[in-house]
Amino acid sequence: MSTQALGGVLSEEQKKQFDEEGYLIVKGLLADDAQIIMDEFMRLHAAGPIPGCFQPMTAEEADGDILKQYPRMMHPHKVNEIAFRYMLHPKVMNILADLFGADPLAAQSMFYFKPPGAKGQALHQDQFYLKVEPGTCIAAWTAIDPADEENGGLFLVPQTNRIDIECPHTADPAVSFTKEEVDVPEGREAIPARMDAGDVLFFNGSVIHGSYPNSSADRFRRAFICHYSDAATTKIGKYYKPLYRHDGTAVTVEANEDAGPCGTEFQQTGAH
């Protein structure tokens, strides 16, 4: 990969949008790559379990819960070259350098299949789990299918990048596959992030976000999601190591063993 300085790709307006609202959608950033990513992860799903990454159930075992047949893949970059490559894609890393104001470090990858009928994920904040110090994390959420309200697209609460990390309460298991949920602050509202395949949504680690069930008849809502910190990082939650520079070299930082604001941050629930 190139050794030249990262960044210098976003306009001042785009950076202002991210700084003020906490998020930025870059249309078509990976439009030429969405099909490649989809094909690889559907191949991985067809191939079956991957220890420590992916454990799908049969239809009989799932007992009507389609999400158990299509669970998310956690840290696929640790077992798959294509996932690793797209986690460090130069287009993504250059934008992150502009948003952080420093070179980014990749901390996590995930892939969500979210087939028709799948539950959503209750509203949450990523920094609650990643526990980056100093600063916070940024997510890069790549739509592999078009994503909207019908098929369980992401919702986010603008300007919650300015709030503290909230302590969650128990989520409704009828609509969320994760157990923890935070409330929308008074005076704010969650808005849909409508996206086309290949669009990438970047958002600050304090931004409240989540999704609702996929109520469509026949539309998946696949997404490739990665989380990043920056070169100033000295600590991160123990599930998110090692970190990786844009050239693929690993960086070891201290595991964040602090309990955090709520004492439950080491439950590996991931995000989105």
UniProtKB/TrEMBL annotation:
Keyword Transmembrane helix among record annotations: no
InterPro entries recorded: Phytyl_CoA_dOase-like
GO molecular function: dioxygenase activity
Pfam families: PhyH (PF05721)
Superkingdom field: Bacteria
Keywords in alphabetical order: Dioxygenase, Oxidoreductase
PANTHER family per UniProt: ECTOINE DIOXYGENASE, PHYTANOYL-COA DIOXYGENASE DOMAIN CONTAINING 1
Protein name listed in UniProt: Phytanoyl-CoA dioxygenase (PhyH)
